[in-house]
Amino acid sequence: MAQEKLILDYIYEHESTRSDQVFLSQPVGGGRVTDYTWAQTMDQARRMATHIKSRNFGPGARIAILSKNCAHFVIAELAIWLAGCTTVAIFPTETAETIHYVLEHSGASLLFVGKLDLWDHQAAAVPSGLPCIALPLAPPTPFESWDVITARTMPFTGKVQRAASDIAILVYTSGSTGQPKGVMHSFKGTTAASVGMHQFIQQQIGADVAPRVLSYLPLAHIFERSWIECTALVDGHTHIYFAESLDTFLQDLNRARPNVFLSVPRLWLKFQQGVFTKMPARKLDRLLRIPILGRIVARKVLKGLGLDQVLLAASGSAPIPPELITWYRRLGLNLMEGYGMTEDFAYSHASTPHHASTGCVGMPMPGVQVRLTEEGEILIKSPGQMVGYFKRPDLDAEVFTADGYFRTGDKGQRTPDGLLKLTGRIKELFKTSKGKYIAPAPIENMLNAHPMVEICMVSGVGQPAAYAMVVLAEDLRPRVNTPEVRAEVQRELTELLQTVNSQLPEYEQLRMLVLASEPWSIENGYLTPTMKIRRNRIETAVHGDMEKWYASKEPIHWA
Questions:
Q1: 340 with 303, same domain?
Q2: Model pLDDT for residues 183-221, shown as the tens digit of each residue
Q3: Which of 10, 23, 170, 549 is most open to solvent, judged by the fewest CB atoms within 10 Å of its CB?
Q4: Do the domain assignments include residue 64?
């Protein structure tokens, strides 16, 4: 019986048949870029794998990577697999406390330290005695460098084979509630999902088109890891460009000119708000209505964003406001929405031009089985399904049904044409004092569609009515103390509150909007590393002011 083809087998093929093809392009500062062909990528990975094996860690040893996206993140992962080990990637923005927890809980035998902005605050998290290696572009560390090790180490030859059941990746969730959980993905599941994603991408952009992608969402997160890195490892002719920094992001986009571009709702919204800082929303809307001029303006906007060559644009990781999808489609960017989780390797649902509707996440991808419970919870069985939670068999028993479906915790419904529509998280449902459950996500999407709103959160547990915390758009925040701007914000958001409430049943209507005193960020703890809101953290921060706000009849409050 022939051995099952796994992701490493695809990689060996590319090493042989595409040796001179550029695979990774890494900016190294000052406008300079270093390219890595498949041959160079594998030469580096083989040399480091030799070094790792010389440490005699044992089969399946967990080896951690703490780094922003860069070429050597991918090369280090290949080295880990070739050495017979398992990758544990840590979000580069994580706190020292969480980094220490992940390293200890995973039992990491080695840590690669890469490109980082917060190393001064994170260094203390590394347990004493843990071997560490500094990747190229790492901040100054006392650790031996990747380049020194690979320069003195010979690459091993031959093709290491991994068992389908071996754990390839241990992904720690971003921990929006409580401690992060370690999700185990085998080589079998990783390969099956990656092959399915690769086939989906080629169907959308054309079988003969080589994908060009910009990697900038955290590779420690399953969305970027699966849809960008692992699909490229299966595909072989994908060219991955990396972003240098936030300040150079638009230049990086224009350098890559991606034809496949994946992002998350918060960033799609920030791109839109960036456009509005140059051209007011009402003016742009008016221009887009003019038949010939509208097409010219739309093309110019997309070119300014570096997205004019995109053939497949998608949003995932969290619900996106339907109005935002419609706005991009008016520009000629056919933005699609998908749905996946860490636990299914982000291989679940996707929209296509033939199966799409704003507000829906599409159809099940090939091999994915779905059903809804009586309560509306989405249950999924995916080819990319996790093996289980690391060291937590008790959680496995909770999240899997007797017949192997994963309980997503998401609520959903089917449209008449078979598309899946997400309606909220079961754990995010809350009751006001009126005793009825409210799902915050649909209301948040309505608010987030307004150009003055960067992000928001709907809450109101046990209160007479729900309320929403709102972070104003970035361009507004520096000017909000100006009387004219403040009055305009007050007027616009009062109108928004009335508009949203007119579309909601009485028990879901918002009593007020509370404008946050500071933006929510990963650094101040209001957002997870994947930019999801930490509801408990935000609710706790404003708890002391709730009574006076509810006692007031004003529709807008300034925190």
A1: yes
A2: 999 999 999 999 999 999 999 999 999 999 999 999 999
A3: 549
A4: yes
Following CA atoms 337, 341, 344, 346 in sequence, which dihedral angle do they give, to the nearest 10 degrees?
Answer: 40
The one-letter amino acid code at 188 reads: K
In a domain, 254, yes or no: no
Cα separation, 349 vs 316, in Å, equals 10
CATH, residue 457: 3.30.300.30
Question: End-to-end distance of the chain based on CA atoms, in angstroms?
Answer: 67
The three-state DSSP-derived secondary structure of 301-365 is HHHHHCCCCCCEEEECCCCCCHHHHHHHHHCCCCEEEEECCHHHCCCCEECECCECCCCCCCEEC
Please give the backbone phi and psi of residue 417, each rounded to the nearest 5 degrees, phi first.
Answer: -95, 10
Instruction: For residue 478, give every residue at least 6 positions away whose Cβ sits within 8 Å of its Cβ, in sequence order, or none.
Output: none
- Annotate 274-311 with b (16+ C-beta within 10 A) or e (fewer): ebbeeeeeeebeeebeeeeebeebbeebbebbbbbebb
Owning domain of residue 525? 429-558
pLDDT, tens digit, for every residue of 237-272?
999 999 998 888 888 998 999 999 999 888 888 888
Name the amino acid, one letter, at 253.
Answer: L
Count other Cβ atoms within 10 Å, centred on residue 417.
Answer: 9
On whether both 279 and 173 belong to a single domain, the answer is: no
Contacts of 163 (CB under 8 A, 6+ apart): 187
Q: Does one domain contain both 151 and 74? A: yes
- Give yes or no: residues 330 and 408 share one domain: yes
Q: Please give the tally of structural domains in the chain.
A: 3
Provide the 3-class DSSP secondary structure of residue 91.
coil
CA–CA distances in Å: residue 216 to residues 46, 223, 345, 370, 425: 25, 11, 18, 31, 27
Q: Which of 185, 205, 237 is the endpoint of a domain?
A: 185
**8 A C-beta contact, residue 173 and residue 183:** yes
Residues listed for the chain: 559
Whole-structure pTM value: 0.85
Q: Residue 77 belongs to a domain with what CATH number?
A: 3.40.50.980
What's the token pair of residue 59? 């089969």
Report yes or no on 399 lying in a domain.
Answer: yes
Which tens digit of pLDDT belongs to each residue from 136-147? 999 999 999 999
Residues 6 or more apart whose CB falls under 8 angstroms from that of 401 comprise 379, 407
416-437 pLDDT, tens digit per residue, is 888 999 887 887 888 887 777 7
Question: What tokens does 285 get?
Answer: 């809307």
> Which CATH number do you get for residue 385?
3.40.50.12780
| Residue tagged 């959903």 (tokens) | 412
One-letter identity of residue 529: P
